[in-house]
Amino acid sequence: MPHKSKDLNxxxxxxxxxxxxxxxxxxxxxxxxxxxxxxxxxLSQYPRYFNTPNQIGLNKKVAALDNCDAGLVFASGMAAIxxxxxxxxxxxxxxxxxxxxxxxxxxxxxNHISDFGIEYDFTHGHNADxxxxxxxxxxxxxxxxxxxxxxxxxxxFEAVVKMAxxxxxxxxxDSTMGSPVNQLPAQYGVDVIIHSATKYMSGHSDILAGTVAxxxxxxxxxxxxxxxxGGSLSDLTVWLLDRSIKTMGLRVSAQNxxxxxxxxxLEQQPQVLRVFYPGLKSHxxxxxxxxxxxxxxxxxxxxxxxxxxxxxxxxNLKLIKRATSFAGVESTALIPALTSHALLNPEQRLAAGIxxxxxxxxxxxxxxxxxxxxxxxxx
Length: 379
Ligand SMILES: Cc1ncc(COP(=O)(O)O)c(C=O)c1O
Known about the structure:
alpha/beta; Aspartate Aminotransferase, domain 1; Aspartate Aminotransferase, domain 2; about 375 residues; 2 domains; binds pyridoxal-5'-phosphate
């Protein structure tokens, strides 16, 4: 279980606060200015340079949440992912990337990254050996996603980091599904921690954002590219995201509890073929998840039996909303084959273990009895 140097909820509420000496407000003000005096400053300030007062405050908070020295807040999770890869890799470099990951990341690597002269290999699994067998002399980066979207596979951080260090490769994780509440990959030596802040950090399905946390030298490298690619977040949204993060620990703890109850219950329903949730003993990576995480998150994926078509089931739900994205306080569900993984061809989906009957259920903070009743009437 990860240890935290300072209580997570305290960091969520206070880290990166902007002191307001003029009016003594306890809430940070918003600085909307896009222009700042440059006299006596070594670096000019500009929103696209990720260094307005509000951006600096939130950069500090996201770094602290993942126990890192430095952080950057982006306009989306994909901006954080693409900028990190293009910031840390150059033409001629090679990366090894997990096969079962968020569809947008898969698509960027499979269909775009070679335009930049960057080589890649997808793994055939998520164990350290699966990454090791794809290493080449020019491998500079290993990219993992844990828990993975949507099958919630767990990658062994310690084993992958050990293997990567032997080859002088960096390890980058998409830690969105875990959130800083449930796992701290930096404690295992993972170099760069990325989140789609659209998910648990925002938590209310109303903000699109992404974050990166890492060491200062790696952050400088990513920021160098970021300033050119221009994926920074507006100060109003930075402020809103900062406010949302204040309750992240409480929200995610409730979602952890509700999701475990729902996963356990779903496993007992005759209409359900299989449930994927790392908190269940039946999950193949349960022991690893238990050792590496302090909660298992709000997402439960499950496969319906063929005689209960997934599309009809989703259409019948009343309380649980049919929607893309996840991690909001409201419960939502989607069919990955039709949404997050629609850009993969059927063979790629099959290889990633994503069937047409698979449902990704994001458990919110509503009463679990109400959620069960909704599912029963939808069956
Ligand atoms: C695991 C994961 N990573 C990254 C992303 C991309 O984030 P965004 O939509 O904020 O660009 C998503 C989006 O669903 C995701 O689920």
